[in-house]
Design goal:
Shape: globular
Number of domains: 2
Strand content: 15-25%
Low-confidence stretches: 1-16
Bound molecules: flavin-adenine dinucleotide, iron/sulfur cluster
Helix content: 10-25%
CATH class of the largest domain: Alpha Beta
Length: about 450
């Protein structure tokens, strides 16, 4: 008899998912993958939702508030995470990477790599006693490296599932976690395991990352600690962020002057990102508005080439930010140099004022890095890439179709987009996938 494993009923990692066929496999459990899984599950299809991180939620669960409504991001994301985790038709595998998608006998064959967590998920009760006992501090990935966690930890407060994961790269195997665990859940002997699943369709919702490591020496001062990424700023602004308020990472100073450099990793052929990343203008304006609430006496300046505020309510949002006193300076930031006391000096070509070059000092700088695909080589996974490196979307009349029969895309996997557009595309992928599954079923019935 096959046993379906839902997020509420985890198996020990390493144990087989005994069911080996689903109607749909959704790759990636960010907001897009969660939405596609919910929509397909609600139509009665069996869904396997695969996430390579230890929790579902993707990027959105780490955001502070969302433009243009300024709703709390985790207040929107957490109910969807819980709904998908409790859905009777959806099975979730975390710590699992999709390595390959192939065609087999008219269906999809999906190869999974189930990574060891060194914890028996059935036994772990998420009490964190292991975390408190562990002597090894490591950068906290959820907090974007702004805080430390332990080599064994539950990933974050509202993670789903609430299970500890051991970081084998940093663990010194001292045994303290195993001694502290009240349920004897630690399994130092776990090994990675490969597994193959069959499915009628695949929805690729593999999302995006920021090109933080781009080769732009002009934006790399000798002391880079006060030049942060926008995801780090999201954590600084989050209600339960690493410091509980906005502080400068290098010395804990309350910032008095914050600069945003837009298009820092986009619209630049020399770094391979010629396109607009679509959300940077808006999230920078959002962060600037939130900052002006958190730091009422600070100056906040946004250096931009153009502001692209194209969605519903976006232009009004931009105008509100101007009315709040946020400074918008049209100019190209040519360099970010070290200044006194950890400050940064920006050399700005004032494009609106005869190209004059000015030097401006700020104590914290946010670089709006470009959005690039999380999946670096879609072809290696058996998917198709478009000319921009994101997943292909070759037919404009079928917006979620990934160019391979039975494969659909959702959210940022096919290109940068905001949350609303990601959710719309996730719904379109579920709808197109469900139509495809019905066609396949009716062909089988006729033959
Ligand atoms: C700083 C910042 C602020 C933002 N603020 C806003 C905002 O205020 N409002 C707004 O509308 N938008 C905002 N956005 C955009 C928003 O984050 C995205 O629209 C949204 O998160 C896209 O979700 P997604 O599910 O498509 O991708 P992701 O959230 O990236 O999810 C993809 C998931 O797939 C998983 N995955 C990838 N490859 C594999 C694999 N091979 N196997 C298994 N799993 C895999 C990843 O681990 C990840 O969890 C912001 C973006 C940034 C960078
Ligand atoms: S065995 Fe590793 S994870 Fe466990 S307490 Fe020691 S260092 Fe931490
Ligand atoms: S101490 Fe054991 S039960 Fe508690 S979170 Fe750690 S592994 Fe899980």
């Amino acid at each position: 008899m096959s046993t379906e494993i839902t997020a509420g009923e985890e198996t020990e990692r390493g144990e087989a998912v005994e069911r080996d066929r689903y109607d749909a496999v959704v790759i990636g459990a960010g907001i897009s993958g969660i939405q596609s899984a919910l929509d397909l599950g609600d139509q009665g299809y069996s869904v396997l939702l695969v996430e390579r991180e230890p929790s579902i939620g993707g990027r959105m669960i780490s955001l502070s508030k969302v433009f243009p409504t300024l709703d709390c991001a985790s207040c929107i994301t957490t109910p969807k995470m819980s709904a998908v985790a409790r859905h009777p038709k959806v099975t979730i595998l975390v710590n699992t990477e999709v390595e390959r998608v192939a065609d087999k006998d008219g269906e999809k064959e999906i190869e999974l790599l189930r990574k060891p967590t060194y914890v028996d998920n059935r036994a772990c009760i998420g009490c964190r006693l292991c975390e408190y006992a562990c002597p090894v501090e490591v950068p906290d990935r959820f907090e974007q490296g702004l805080a430390l966690t332990r080599a064994i930890a539950v990933p974050f407060t509202n993670a789903i599932p609430q299970k500890a994961v051991l970081d084998a790269e940093h663990c010194i195997f001292c045994g303290a976690c195993a001694r502290a665990c009240p349920t004897d859940a630690i399994r130092y002997e776990q090994e990675p395991r490969r597994q193959t699943i069959r499915a009628g369709i695949v929805v690729a919702a593999t999302g995006f990352k920021l090109n933080v490591g781009i080769n732009k020496p002009q934006y790399q001062p000798k002391n880079p600690r006060n030049v942060i990424s926008p995801l780090q700023m999201e954590r600084l602004l989050a209600p339960h962020g690493p410091y509980g308020r906005v502080l400068r990472p290098s010395d804990g100073k309350i910032p008095e002057s914050v600069a945003y450099v837009l298009c820092a990793g986009s619209r630049d052929k020399s770094i391979g990102v010629p396109y607009c990343s679509r959300v940077c203008c808006m999230y920078s304006i959002k962060q600037a508005m939130l900052l002006s609430g958190a730091l009422p006496i600070a100056d906040i300046t946004i250096y931009y080439m153009d502001i692209r505020a194209f969605g519903k309510g976006f232009e009004e949002f931009y105008q509100n930010a101007k009315a709040m006193g946020i400074q918008f300076v049209r100019g190209k930031v040519a360099r970010v140099n070290d200044g006194p006391n950890g400050d940064l000096i920006l050399r700005v070509e004032m494009t609106e004022e005869d190209g004059r070059v000015e030097e401006r000092q700020h104590d914290l700088v946010v670089l709006a890095y470009g959005i690039i695909p999380e999946l670096e080589s879609p072809e290696q996974v058996g998917l198709r890439a478009g000319s921009d490196g994101f997943l292909a979307r070759p037919d404009s009349t079928r917006p979620a179709f990934a160019g391979i029969e039975g494969v659909f895309t959702a959210g940022c996997a096919a290109g940068p987009k905001d949350i609303v557009d990601s959710i719309i595309e996730a719904g379109a992928a579920a709808s197109a996938g469900s139509a495809y599954l019905s066609q396949c079923a009716s062909k089988t019935t006729k033959s």
